[in-house]
């Protein structure tokens, strides 16, 4: 089922139909089924379940405190992305700090990349980060991609002729795939190391509702390539031989979003009125917050204003739809939403402000007896309590690192 988006307008039309409706040839039986290399996952609200951490993760949580030691450069504004590479953690803060902070795996601050300014080797804003083959790539404004080594030293840069929101560097083809935002003429373009556009994919379609989602996790790295998706679609596309081909389709049945109706109502209503309408009438759609590794594709789905955790088990070819919070049966600290940061291999992470983690510890203490609290903080809850009480003194983040089952 090869559908190319490059030059042929008829095939472009076919792909746009795929975006709106999914694959017409999808099988009708089984929760997860495959046909012509395309996986179809049936989403059924009658099968929503409670999910426990130990269903998907090894029974241990590592707490890593990202130290600031009163160093201004180490203080994190907001974590937009977190990447683990070799023995380091790279914190991407595009909104507040407009920088990349580098920590070791014990949470000790090393240095930051913050080349704010105008002209060569400088940026005004940052959009995204990728780390491939020991090179840090930054998608920056105004319209450039910058390269740094793992120590944070500038290497080179090149300019783009369009604005990028997120990106992925493919070392096989030596191309950068750049998502231009939901309002761009083409959702994705590929460029070479000179900034020249090689191909364009997913032409704008006025019948597809795009909303205004920032989509920080459009690209999912896989062992065999890269996948692209965005909010409100039902399909993940794999890049293969100069084209993005449908690979995973979420079948929402009658609950799927009516894109044409959403587009129509957005035009007819004022913004506030439309948001109220959207919250209760949007139907099921994909929300690209999550991670993908060798074992799981764990992301989020939403049905109007209700959120779910979506778990596709690649090893067993099974699918779970879970109520939004995962039950913490590892250290019983608190239940939380699914991790969104993939580090390396089977490691993933979730981040909490130190003060927020401390508040969770206070809530835990208030929910049990003094005797049970004493047992808990000396036993299975000891790592959590130690991290939380240290976090009381810092505005930086504490990472909760889990390993997915193999």
Question: Could you outline the blueprint of secondary structure elements for this entry?
Answer:
Blueprint: H1 9-21, E1 32-35, E2 38-42, E3 48-49, E4 62-65, E5 81-85, E6 88-93, E7 99-104, E8 109-113, E9 125-132, E10 135-141, E11 144-149, E12 154-159, E13 166-170, E14 175-179, E15 186-191, E16 197-203, E17 219-222, E18 225-228, E19 235-240, E20 243-251, H2 259-268, H3 271-281, E21 284-292, E22 296-303, E23 306-313, E24 318-323, E25 341-342, E26 347-353, H4 354-367, H5 370-378, H6 382-391, E27 397-403
Parallel strand pairs: 2-20, 3-24
Antiparallel strand pairs: 1-2, 4-27, 5-6, 6-7, 7-8, 9-10, 10-11, 11-12, 13-14, 14-15, 15-16, 17-18, 18-19, 19-20, 21-22, 22-23, 23-24, 25-26, 26-27
Helix pairs in contact: 2-3, 4-6
Taking the alpha carbons of the first and last residues, their distance comes to: 30 Å
Outline the low-pLDDT stretches: 1-29
Oligomer: single chain
Largest sheet: 6 strands, mixed
What is the molecular shape? globular
CATH architectural name? 6 Propeller
Strand content: 35-45%
Helix content range: 10-25%
How large is the count of helical segments?
6
How many domains make up the coordinates?
A: 1
Query: Count the strands?
Result: 27
CATH C-level class is Mainly Beta
CATH superfamily: TolB, C-terminal domain
Structural class: alpha+beta
The name CATH uses for the topology is Neuraminidase
Strand order of the largest sheet: 1-2-20-19-18-17
Q: Please state the CA-atom Rg, rounded to the nearest Å.
A: 22 Å
Mean pLDDT: 90
């Amino acid at each position: 089922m090869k559908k190319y988006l490059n030059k042929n307008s008829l095939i472009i039309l076919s792909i746009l139909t795929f975006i709106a409706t999914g694959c017409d040839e999808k099988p009708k039986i089984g929760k997860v089924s495959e046909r012509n290399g395309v996986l179809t996952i049936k989403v059924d609200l009658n099968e929503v379940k409670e999910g426990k951490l130990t269903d998907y993760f090894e029974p241990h949580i590592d707490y890593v405190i990202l130290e600031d030691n009163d160093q201004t450069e180490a203080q994190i504004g907001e974590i937009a992305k977190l990447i683990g590479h070799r023995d380091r953690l790279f914190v991407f803060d595009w909104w507040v700090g407009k920088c990349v902070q580098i920590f070791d795996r014990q949470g000790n601050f090393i240095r930051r990349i913050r080349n704010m300014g105008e002209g060569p080797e400088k940026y005004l804003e940052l959009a995204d980060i990728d780390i491939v083959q020991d090179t840090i790539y930054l998608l920056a404004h105004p319209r450039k991609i910058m390269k740094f080594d793992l120590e944070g030293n500038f290497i080179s840069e090149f300019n783009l002729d369009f604005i990028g929101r997120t990106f992925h560097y493919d070392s096989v083809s030596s191309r950068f795939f750049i998502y231009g935002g939901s309002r761009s003429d083409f959702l994705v373009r590929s460029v070479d190391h000179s900034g020249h556009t090689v191909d364009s994919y997913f032409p704008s379609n006025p019948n597809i509702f795009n909303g205004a989602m920032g989509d920080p996790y459009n690209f999912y790295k896989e062992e065999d390539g890269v996948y692209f998706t965005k909010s409100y679609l039902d399909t993940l596309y794999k890049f293969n031989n100069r084209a993005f081909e449908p690979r995973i389709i979420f079948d929402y049945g009658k609950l799927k979003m009516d894109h044409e109706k959403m587009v129509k109502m957005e035009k007819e209503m004022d913004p506030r009125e439309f948001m109220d309408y959207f919250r209760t009438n949007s139907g099921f759609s994909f929300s690209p917050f999550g991670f993908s590794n060798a074992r799981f594709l764990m992301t989020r789905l939403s049905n109007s204003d209700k959120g779910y955790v979506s778990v596709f088990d690649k090893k067993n070819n099974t699918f779970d739809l879970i109520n939004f919070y995962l039950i913490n049966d590892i250290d019983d600290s608190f239940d939380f939403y699914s991790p969104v940061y993939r580090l390396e291999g089977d490691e993933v992470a979730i981040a909490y402000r130190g003060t927020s983690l401390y508040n969770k510890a206070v809530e835990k203490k208030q929910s049990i007896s003094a005797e049970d609290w004493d047992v808990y903080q000396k036993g299975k809850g000891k790592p959590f309590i130690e991290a939380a009480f240290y976090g009381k003194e810092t505005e930086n983040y504490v990472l909760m690192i889990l390993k997915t089952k193999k």
